[in-house]
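Q: Please design a sequence for this.
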């Protein structure tokens, strides 16, 4: 049996998608969460002086997106055809775009008024385009899942991406409103109701982000 250790900080952050992949696959791993002081001591031993890192049978690899994709492929959660795999990859890139282009701007703005303005502009602007993209894909697939007819990495990407977006908007007291996206709202519920995921959500450390 391969031995896995995922190391990150005491937040969901950039490690949670991989934690969700382990959870859905029912695979055991060590969920190591470092305090900042512990991190400073081991930082120079990591490949890029950044977390998360994954240790697989003694080999340490980095980059959160690559780690999550590696695990999803290994645990056969990456779709059944190359087109399904593409759609999942595409969803992953869409959320990378949302994070890098939009959410980071909100996160790093220190002026509270400006932070709220940027968040509101995102909600009224490009967020609608992204939500429509996923809502349309879900309608087209017609099974209640992003691809195929069972939960895959694609559904976890959407779930994790939207719940992280929601958590970030909450910092500015704004809500993620999915009233016009019934397929997406149902997907969030479906992921949360998966018995393994439901147990993980109930038992994982409670953090804001
Ligand atoms: N592209 C990398 C970014 C990694 C990264 O910047 N991680 C942050 C935490 S989210 C970190 O380790 N920062 C190091 C530090 O604060 O010293 C990934 O997705 O894994």
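A: Design:
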């Amino acid at each position: 049996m391969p031995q896995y250790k995922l190391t990150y900080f005491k937040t969901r952050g950039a490690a949670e998608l991989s934690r969700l992949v382990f959870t859905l696959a029912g695979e055991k791993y060590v969920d190591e969460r470092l305090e900042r002081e512990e991190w400073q001591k081991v930082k120079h031993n990591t490949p890029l002086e950044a977390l998360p890192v994954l240790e697989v049978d003694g080999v340490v690899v980095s980059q959160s997106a690559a780690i999550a994709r590696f695990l999803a492929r290994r645990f056969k959660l990456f779709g059944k055809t190359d087109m399904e795999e593409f759609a999942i990859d595409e969803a992953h890139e869409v959320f990378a775009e949302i994070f890098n282009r939009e959410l980071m701007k909100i996160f790093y703005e220190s002026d509270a008024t400006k932070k709220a303005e940027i968040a509101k502009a995102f909600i009224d602007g490009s967020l609608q385009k992204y939500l429509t993209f996923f809502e349309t894909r879900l309608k087209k697939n017609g099974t209640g899942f992003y691809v195929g007819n069972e939960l895959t990495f694609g559904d976890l990407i959407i779930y994790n991406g939207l719940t992280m977006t929601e958590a970030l908007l909450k910092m500015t007291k704004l809500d993620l409103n999915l009233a016009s996206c019934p397929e997406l709202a149902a997907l969030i519920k479906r992921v949360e109701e998966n018995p393994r995921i439901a147990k993980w959500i109930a038992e994982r450390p409670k953090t804001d982000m």
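Q: Thanks. Anything notable?
A: The first strand starts at residue 4 and ends at 9. DSSP finds nine helices and four strands in the chain.
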